[in-house]
Amino acid sequence: MKPDTEPLAPAKPSSRDGMRTDQVAAQLRKLIVSGTLSPGQRLSERVMSEQFEGISRTPLREAFKILAAEGLLTLEPNRGAVVTALSLLEVEAAIEVLSGLEALAAEPACELITDSEVAEIEALHMQMVAAHDAGDLMSYFQINQAIHQRMVDAARNPVLSRIYTAECARIRRYRYAGNQQPARWHQAVREHGEMLNALRDRAGPVLREMLRRHHKAGWVVSRGVLEESLPAADISTARPRPQRRNPTASKRSK
């Protein structure tokens, strides 16, 4: 597996600040998702400007605003840009929402998706498998996210797509953590192959249940990874795992 993190690289020169802004935003996004920039870490404009070979403050600040709108950065008075830190409870709640949105999109997506759109998802799937086989986790993750977004968009519900896109961006780095376990990564690829078959067959109910199981299995692994990496204060706010009740004991207590 290739390293999941990489050093800051200079943005490519451009005569247009807008292009420089997009390039820096993309670079910072990768560094946040991969964990190179940690939750709670402050991003100094001076340091970032030096790292990106003297990029001016204006496009850098605009890049910060883009990532703040995605929920990856928080702009704080007197501190500037800080990498957003979410509690385990917040991440779990977002995962539940994303799972519900994908389940909601599954049946109309299978009814409305075109053959050309299925072909596009098939092509993305092949690229994703190639990234997996090459051990390129970041490329795999980016393509994976694009596939899920395409399936949601196929439902032709712009409100659903907009909410889904926003929540995906906000917890992107936390979802990335789960795939760092090889066993889950390999299983996720197999699950994607099954989901693609359901999409080809236009089997909405089947795809809906596959997506639910896919998210549930992914969250079990991601939660374990996050419990080891998040600060204790963030973990303590998470909902406890449900305990199985003993009906016999309950009767005796009455």
Structure description:
The chain has 254 residues and is mainly alpha-helical. 70% of the residues lie in helices and 4% in strands. The chain has twelve helices and three strands, in the order αβααββααααααααα. The N terminus and C terminus are likely disordered.
Summary, kept brief:
The chain is mainly α and 254 residues long. The protein has helices spanning 17-34, 45-51, 57-70, 88-112, 115-133, 137-153, 158-170, 172-178, 182-200, 204-229, 232-236, 247-253, and strands at residues 42-43, 73-76, 80-83.
Order of helices and strands: HEHHEEHHHHHHHHH
Q: Summarize the biggest pleated sheet.
A: 3 strands, antiparallel
Average pLDDT for all residues = 84
Number of helices: 12
What is the overall shape?
globular
Question: How many beta strands in the DSSP annotation?
Answer: 3
CA gyration radius, whole angstroms? 20 Å
Please identify the structural class as seen in this structure: mainly alpha
The proportion of residues forming helix, as a percent range, comes to: 55-70%
Keywords:
254 residues, mainly alpha, three-stranded antiparallel sheet, 12 helices, disordered N terminus
What layout of secondary structure does this protein have?
Blueprint: H1 17-34, E1 42-43, H2 45-51, H3 57-70, E2 73-76, E3 80-83, H4 88-112, H5 115-133, H6 137-153, H7 158-170, H8 172-178, H9 182-200, H10 204-229, H11 232-236, H12 247-253
Antiparallel strand pairs: 1-3, 2-3
Helix pairs in contact: 1-3, 4-6, 4-7, 4-10, 5-6, 5-9, 6-7, 8-10, 9-10
